[in-house]
Design goal:
Number of strands: 12
Largest sheet: 6 strands, mixed
Number of domains: 2
Strand order of the largest sheet: 6-7-8-3-9-10
CATH superfamily of the largest domain: P-loop containing nucleotide triphosphate hydrolases
Distance between the termini: 48 Å
Amino acid sequence: MSEFPAVELRAVSKIFAGGVKAVDRVTLDVTGGSIVALLGPSGCGKTTTLRLINRLEEPSAGEVLVRGQDVRSQRPEELRRSIGYVIQEGGLFPHLDVGANVATVPRLLGWTRARLHRRVAEILELVGLPEPKFGRRLPAQLSGGQRQRVGVARALAADPDLLLMDEPFGALDPGTRAAIHDEFLRLHARLRKTVVLVTHDLLEAGRLADEIVLLDGGSLVQRGTLRDLLLRPADARVRTFLGSRGTELALGMLHVGQAIVNLPAESHGTPSRRLSATLSLGRALAALEGTGDKDLVAVEGDPGGMYLAKNLRERIVADLKGPACLPMSSPI
């Protein structure tokens, strides 16, 4: 294992014309072989941070190191050829076929024709697009999911140890996105590349990344796992970003009997609002906890449904200092 982080930012800032501070004193290290997701609202500095890593942007202050070396000491074109880069729909060249798109970086590196052909066939097979069937197709002849796979294949073609991905799955429909996530995780398990991934999707970050870095206003607000962010938010900015979706996911990570006493602060308020936040978990909690949980019961006539048991409803109502218990037929 290298003695250096694969990527390291040391108090990095980026100020654009007009005094716009896109990145504000961000310090971050990325362990080799890990997947780190940069998460946050639009304009929070995610993409700028990514672009600083491969010198598509230059820092106004601080240092950016890749493999222990300051990126400003490296020729930009050589640095970029050593890093895979993926954007939405792969950013493919529309006039080049799949094989030529994948071969872009190895060709710039001067690979022989035979080595190039072997690598294109190998990497397309790896992403599930065999070269005999897809190699001669133009990007317009592919589906969105297939174009994204070609983008990943192109980024991996020269076998870089570092992969930067900027909202790579954002343009895909939910079903295709789930399938591509599965493929991506399978590839990562096999290849163990270091990946820095930009996304605004909380669930995507939680599913794909070993660690999430939440940015807001150009600053690093919190880093950790999805569970860390949901159950131990660093401050109000984290809670604001997570919103009601974060409340539901946080509750889903807790034993249903703990849910009311562990409600995140933003769900506090009137008894009806707090109760609604608890009950909004619906059948998701049933799936997580299973039918054997002492606080969940099935109701005759609705075997597929799960309902709050009377003892938990009593605890909820007592905690809320609200009215009498909900009827037994009230669903979660």
